[in-house]
């Protein structure tokens, strides 16, 4: 039996595509996201549970680790440079933290007016975050777990098919009491997920 | 180009902010080698709407800020068009330094804003490329900017610009340089404007700016 047996998990839930999740991860706890069907974009934000203004910062994280992709060993930093969490296991290989979340308005910019009223991640973040006081001012730029957004040395940026596959997972250890806010992306307009958003499973291990 | 409306030399390692009406040009000029200008942008008068670096980059398929890209907000609005620059690359991946944060916060508070309003900035005059290795390793390019290098932004809506001249956080020298900020009356953009014809996404953001403040 491994240390992380789903049968002993304190948290075990499935988030449907287009739905969200807000929940606590206590310091020292381990939190896993399982890409059940592969190539799903799991838009994820972490907040210091004691102060939601101390929130995950994509650019501070990128700069301090000296690299743009996240994987095992990446420390996820806050806007105050506190380590919120560390990626401790990653069977996918790399994850994006530059691409941000989809939104109803940015869908119009990227795909056209007909997408204006489609379900989008930014709105899901706001809907689920409201209970913790996470409003639009407190929405930083998220991690896109399982998403592949290559950046080139020449300054190009593209979205390509994901590098994930069914059953791949990523796992973080909370370095302080955290809130995790997830939008399981409903995007149907780009090829990263094969135009087919799918559910993910969330697992957590900590004393209850 | 007509007369300059405002000219302010931001000292080395200082911060400044300015409200710029739609249709102006905000021109930044490096006054020393290795200058950096960490810049936050907001829709003036809106409690929340602000520069969204990820949306700006992914909509225009670029990991750097350069002409004729438009700088987009959380609500998909074109805040500014980068109408020209003596440099082909301005960093938007690395965020600001702790020194810049102090200055930016000091200016933000004058506008009723606070830590929650700090967002991913553009570091004008700085270049940090990525490597094509598996990790996407960052490489800061020393001496990217020389004195007199410049960048010009045409405001597409009323904008609050908050600027810090603290060094880029990855600059090993950490020698702050002053930056001149000028506001000019700009020529109206025509249908063949490079920012409008650059990409269909850029044009849509410009059109949204017109609609939102109709
Ligand atoms: Zn999304």
UniProtKB/TrEMBL annotation, chain A:
Residues 14-179 form the DUF1989 domain. InterPro entries: DUF1989, UAAP2. Pfam families: DUF1989. PANTHER family: RE64534P (PTHR31527:SF0). It comes from the Bacteria. NCBIfam families: urea_degr_1 (TIGR03424). The lineage of its organism: Bacteria, Bacillati, Actinomycetota, Actinomycetes, Pseudonocardiales. This is Urea amidolyase associated protein UAAP2.
TrEMBL record, chain B:
Pfam families: DUF1989. Residues 9-160 form the DUF1989 domain. InterPro entries: DUF1989. It comes from the Bacteria. This is DUF1989 domain-containing protein. It comes from Kutzneria chonburiensis.
